[in-house]
Amino acid sequence: MSTAAAAAAPRSLWRRMWRAARLDAHVYEEVEAEPRALPQAALVVLLASVAGALGGQIAGKPTLHVALDLFEPLVLWLGGSAFTYMVGSTFLRGPHTVTDYAEVLRTTGFAFAPGVLRGLVALPPPELGSWLPLAADLWMLVAGVVAVRQALDFGTRRAIATFGLSFVLLWLSLGGLLWVLPA
User: Fold this and answer.
1) Measured between alpha carbons, how far is 148 from 23 in angstroms, rounded to an integer?
2) 25-82, pLDDT tens digit by residue?
3) Which of 64, 88, 108, 172 is most buried, with most CB under 10 Å away?
4) 165 phi and psi, to 5 degrees?
């Protein structure tokens, strides 16, 4: 890779993250069509994970909560994308739906871009820091619906239904897993 290409890659990532956070549907279409964007999508999720853990640590959360803040986005991304792909490409398949798991991973990975705000909980005033993680989480939910809509070539209603059903299936699966694990 040339020096110019290596210098342009991070800028491209930050530009894509900014566009994804702005809910720009075109960036989700762009990463859906670009197989080489999967490492970037994984990096976005990793940045959101680290920001969440850092924010939890700054906020004085117990170590277990900080660990959960670190791993939760990764589990949500991989598991949620799998359920989204299964639900969206079978049960709620639209007339124009043509996709694969990697496309869903790439688009939903970029939906975690607002998650980097979770690391800013130490900002003054304290009221801002306490609301920032919630705002970032809600923003990521909306971005997730946009990502699903673009990855599966859906309308917004079908994307919301797919996203919601996938979330319920993931929640049930994780709850079942926690139930069967030894105490």
Assistant:
1) 12
2) 999 999 999 999 999 999 999 999 999 999 889 888 899 989 999 999 999 999 999 9
3) 108
4) -65, -40
Rounded CA separation 2/162 (Å): 41
CA gyration radius, the chain: 17
Q: Are 164 and 92 in contact (CB under 8 A)?
A: no
The reported pTM is 0.89
With a pLDDT cut of 90, the percent of the chain lying above it is: 69
> What whole-number distance in Å separates Cα of residue 41 and Cα of residue 13?
9
Give the torsion sign (CA, 118, 122, 125, 131): positive
Residue 143: its H or E element:
helix 126-151
Contact predicate 162/87, CB 8 Å = yes
